[in-house]
Specification:
Elements (H helix, E strand, L loop, with lengths): L9 E3 L10 H10 L10 E5 L5 E7 L4 E7 L12 E2 L2 E2 L2 E3 L1 H9 L25
Parallel strand pairs: 1-2
Antiparallel strand pairs: 1-7, 2-3, 3-4, 5-6
């Protein structure tokens, strides 16, 4: 069971990857394709070509962890592939969208009501 805080970001690699990749391969993809720091503590999602298999790569303070899920029927609803300057662009999704995706719920068909949402600050405030 993953316990996700509100500060944990979730990045999806929109490029399908070889699901035989393990720690070193996913580490390299996180740096090269997603342009992110693997040690950040954020979740990095990778999908198979058919979309029925997903791997989650995560740094857990003392080591990397990989979680995987393969569907027997159907496929996961991933964000659309996004290209920028001819290369794949990772997509950041919200925690709620991630949990709905794992449950097989199509987030495109869900209507979200407006709520106040404070933008995250780049630098923490310094005490005075």
């Amino acid at each position: 069971m993953l316990n996700l805080s509100n500060s944990t970001k979730i990045f999806v690699c929109t490029k399908p990857v070889d699901m035989r990749r393990s720690f070193n391969g996913l580490y390299a993809l996180t740096q090269t394709v997603m342009q992110q720091d693997p040690f950040s503590g954020h979740l990095f999602l990778f999908k198979s070509r058919r979309g029925d298999f997903l791997k989650i790569f995560w740094w857990d303070r003392d080591g990397f962890a990989i979680f995987s899920k393969r569907l027997e029927v159907g496929s996961f609803q991933f964000p659309a592939v996004r290209f920028v300057d001819g290369s794949y662009e990772p997509v950041e999704i919200e925690r709620a969208q991630f949990l709905l995706m794992l449950e097989g719920i199509d987030t495109d068909s869900i209507k979200r009501h407006k709520r106040y949402r404070r933008e995250q600050m780049e630098k923490p405030l310094q005490p005075v």
